[in-house]
Hints:
Mean pLDDT: 89
Number of helices: 1
Number of strands: 6
Structural class: mainly beta
Helix content: under 10%
Amino acid sequence: MDDQTDDVGNPNVEAVILEWDDSTNAVRGTLTFKSVDDPAVYATYNITGASTNNTGWTQLAVTHVGSAGTTFAGNEAVVVQFSRAGNLGATG
Length: 92
């Protein structure tokens, strides 16, 4: 995932992306990508492990959950939505 958005001025969102793996659950959160032009085109993934901070981009450990429509084009505008899983509570 690129650390900069395509918004005006290309703001850096690295700190936000690096928080996506902070839950203590096996599934740390859910990440969904949707086409801006056709919201019926989407892909959903669970974040299932630690992220790797690289220069300018972050590698996410994900597992595919589901998708619909055609694949995304390299220059297609997409919306990224993240939902965090709560921390694992006490067991036993």
